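Researcher: Sequence of IclR family transcriptional regulator follows. Predict its structure.
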Amino acid sequence: MNQSVLKALTLLDYFSAETPELTLKEIADKSGMPKPTVYRLLASLEHHHVIMKTKENEHDTKYQLGLKLLELGKIVSDQLEVRTIALPDMEQLGREINEVIHLVIVNQEEAVYIEKVDSSRALRLNTRVGRSAPLYLGSGPKLLLANMPEERQQEILNEAELSRAGHQPIDKTQLIQELQTIYEEDYAYSIGEQDPDTTGISYPIYDYNSQVIAALAVSGLSSHFEGENLDVLKAKTCQAAEKISRKLGYRGPILMQEE
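Model: Prediction complete. Tokens:
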């Protein structure tokens, strides 16, 4: 790890509930580093709103933790909350359909799989908790991308050359049209975009502000996602997403299965 980054992060450990505010001298004394070095590190942290000055004069400067940490902590808290709340319903859905189930969220420019329930089938998908994927590949990531503001969508889609597994290029115009359809139907469907011969379906999970905060994604062999069985998988996945959303405080319209 970069030593300057490591030193800067170490300074955060000196703040606590008992000592929420520290002077430059106190931080330098605790760290054993020269005051000029500590000052430069704190200036970098302050620039990114991780640290904030509470008092500055010719004798000393006081600091406390910045609001950026509150923002980041809220993100972590929300992730932990949705995982904890969603897992029982994911496990119940897994018992009913015996397919692989994922909980997917957005992390900056990627989709991240934060929970997984395996099936008892021999199929093993290329996913694990903590794995990230492009937001334009797979039903879960695409559902999340479709629910972003249009400007943010464009930023993400313009950042890199878009391609599927095997480096097959993606038609951006067609993808944008697909995202619009996903947004309108509140449902996403994909075939072979991350793993060959597999199909994925996803429904949104809403929070108390009626914002899409995660995707409930079901994946398996494409042969299982056909005819009446596909209708059953869609209905049960939609119902599970509805239950999770209600537990998170969602009070909007009933989630409708795509026809």
